Amino acid sequence: xxxxxxxxxxxxxxxxxxxxxxxxELVYRPINPSLGGDPxxxxxxxSQASAQGExxxxxxxxxxxxxxxxxxxxxxxxxxxxLPEVDDGQ
Length: 90
Description:
Layout: H1 2-19, H2 41-52, E1 56-57, E2 64-65
Antiparallel strand pairs: 1-2
């Protein structure tokens, strides 16, 4: 019985030690060209986003997104208020 336990322990240690030899480092490869990815991915990403349809609008040239309602949270005014004139002392 002691021999069987020793053999199982040795097999477990051998498998555990050998299993780490197959691990590799994870490497981040960006897809989005805006984040450093391949510039050739831009057209594919745009076509995939357009094909999904939700949020995309055909109101004008280029790609636009209609943002959803944020649950009644007040959002900034898209038309900014002009700043007052500053007297520079001249």
